[in-house]
Amino acid sequence: MKHRSKSGPHFAIGGRNTEPGEFPHMAAVGTWVFKCGSSLISSRFVLTAAHCTSVSSRDTTITDPFSNGFTPTDAMIAKIIVHPKYTSPKKYFDIALMELDRVVDFSRYIQPACLWGQFDTGNLGKKATVTGWGVIDSVDIILNKECDSLLRPSCSRHWCGIQKTQMCAGKLAGGVDACQGDSGGPLQVKIPLPITTQGSMHYVIGVTSFGIECALPNLPGVYTRVSSFIDCIENNVWR
Question: Which parts of the sequence belong to the Peptidase S1 domain (predicted)?
Fold first, then answer.
């Protein structure tokens, strides 16, 4: 299902390759060419950006990202639920759900993410991670980038018109950012589980929405704030 690029890497900017199972909720939207990322949040739903839903009928596959030695899991999209207040090309309310046509079986490499339900992310720390496959070509390996989660006043200084349903993340010095092809993917915080268990818990705090070019100084990426839409998500996913 994945197109293997023979040119140089076209990754999201400033990150490192991930290990299989490191971000088990990551999913790609598309068929032969993956246009956007998304987050598996239940056995039947993925969370993505509303602007990622304008796909043709053939571009309706969600796949587990691992094709570098792992068999991807594909599922067709049965239903797309776009936030009713989203109006393209505006980027407000840039959030959507995709219901899969079947239940996805969980494994070591496929697990749902948790959603952060509080507006304040301060007790999660100041660092967050954005994941995606990057720009231009589809590639086999997810890249992850650690970035700073910026408070809203700081975000508003760099972007006019930012609303409380949005948030910024990146490095103000430049060099780290989501990029074209990462849209719809998660901005997340990884919380280690107790030592009596294995692995970590991922909380998705944002959905990659937009930016200007990639990784430019003083232009952090803008993300849809997940906590602003928890009720809407729960009413559709766990109805």
Answer: 12-238
